[in-house]
Amino acid sequence: MRIAIFTVLILTAVAALFIAYGCAKQERSFGQPLTEAGFTAIADILVKPEQFADKTVKVQGAITNECPSGGWFFLKDESGVIYVNLHPSYFAIPQAVGRQATAQGRVRKEGPQVEIIAEGVELK
């Protein structure tokens, strides 16, 4: 009888650990690895997009809004908010509104819209 109770307790503890580990927010990477050394403030890109046009930048902040299929999102740091487009790079991220993220990609300006065509994203 004691062995059965002990076995049930051990199995319950192991199951709880697996559930807790599976539900924890983990760092995950999508697309290409991030290689840029420093970060660029979003406001710097928005104020002078011509200076950053077709250059690779790395930005970080919180995801404030996201495509239901994970193909784009808005990233906000302490200086501003920028649109990050994943579609041209053929990858998507899971739903992550409210999570911290780092995105690396090329800056593109079309008309009034300034965006980053992401090559890689890390979720924290």
Structure, explained:
This protein has 124 residues and is of the alpha+beta class. It has one domain: OB fold (Dihydrolipoamide Acetyltransferase, E2P) (Beta Barrel), CATH 2.40.50. It is built from 3 helices and 6 strands. It has helices at residues 2-23, 42-47, 49-52, and strands spanning 28-31, 56-66, 72-77, 80-85, 100-110, 113-123. It has a 5-stranded mixed beta barrel. The longest helix has 22 residues, at 2-23. The protein is elongated, with a radius of gyration of 20 Å. The termini are far apart. The relative contact order is 0.22. The model has no long low-confidence stretch (mean pLDDT 88).
| Secondary-structure arrangement, i.e. CATH architecture | Beta Barrel
The level-1 CATH class: Mainly Beta
Structural class: alpha+beta
Q: Could you tell me how far the N terminus lies from the C terminus, measured between alpha carbons in angstroms?
A: 45 Å
